[in-house]
Design goal:
By secondary structure, the chain is mainly beta. The protein is built from four helices and 14 strands. The protein folds into two domains: 3-82, no CATH class; 97-206, OB fold (Dihydrolipoamide Acetyltransferase, E2P), CATH 2.40.50. The strands form three sheets. The chain has a six-stranded antiparallel beta sheet with strand order 3-4-5-2-1-6, covered by helices on one side. Strands 7, 8, 9, 10, 13 and 14 form a six-stranded antiparallel beta sheet that branches. A hairpin with a 2-residue loop joins strand 11 and strand 12 (164-166). One of its GO terms (molecular function) is tRNA binding.
């Protein structure tokens, strides 16, 4: 997993790269590179790159999530190595917002409004706990996979809702910032011809759904 964001108005010329999460963190800085690792086991949680546009000039003019390709990650790894850190980054260009097909759904044993869904993502099947009032079996939805960054900045991590494991999020149109999206609870149910399970969600086409 590799999630990157660049927000010069709020943070200056800093590229934030997240690879994991932990409550307790240790931080080291050298030559404009800030390394964040887990205080418990030392696993890499991410890097902050100060003066990022000097390494990646194409960042200028961007704001929000940044999708790094292999060549860009290679440049960052050179910066990491020059700063004396060993843990390198690995590019992740797989789509994080995909079409999912809800194969089955059961009531949550400890909640009167949550459902446990089994969702086909094409190359894998995942369990997602969903609170949308209109969720149903045998429909196509938009799934934010683990590792996705929502338009709000929220990162989707594996977790549990009321004690039941959940891996991903079934999205509402408003959560995806689609044009003219209904501002009420409920997930986005896609037309049958929108695509197949596992296909990357087409945001441009999605913006036409409520035109």
């Amino acid at each position: 997993m590799l999630i990157s964001s660049y927000n010069p108005n709020e943070m200056g010329d800093v590229l934030v790269v997240v690879t994991g999460q932990a409550a307790d963190q240790n931080v080291k800085q050298n030559q404009g590179v800030v390394q964040i690792v887990s205080a418990q086991d030392g696993s890499l949680l991410g890097y902050n790159f100060l003066g990022a546009s000097e390494v990646l000039p194409e960042l200028k003019g961007q704001n929000g999530q940044v999708f790094l390709n292999e060549a860009q990650v290679a440049k960052l790894n050179e910066k990491i190595q020059a700063a004396g850190f060993d843990e390198k980054l690995t590019a992740d260009e797989t789509p994080k917002f995909v079409i999912g097909y809800v194969e089955s759904m059961t009531k949550h044993p400890k909640s009167d409004h949550l459902h446990i869904t089994q969702v086909d993502l094409g190359d894998q099947k995942v369990q997602i706990v969903c609170g949308s009032p209109n969720i149903a079996e045998h429909v196509k939805v938009v799934v934010a996979k683990v590792g996705a960054m929502m338009p709000s900045g929220q990162i989707i991590w594996p977790g549990a809702l009321v004690g039941v494991p959940s891996n991903g999020m079934i999205c509402a149109a408003r959560e995806l910032n689609l044009k003219n999206a209904p501002q009420k609870p409920g997930c986005l149910i896609l037309p049958d011809d929108f695509g197949q399970a596992g296909d990357a969600f087409d945001f441009a086409r999605g913006n036409q759904l409520f035109a």
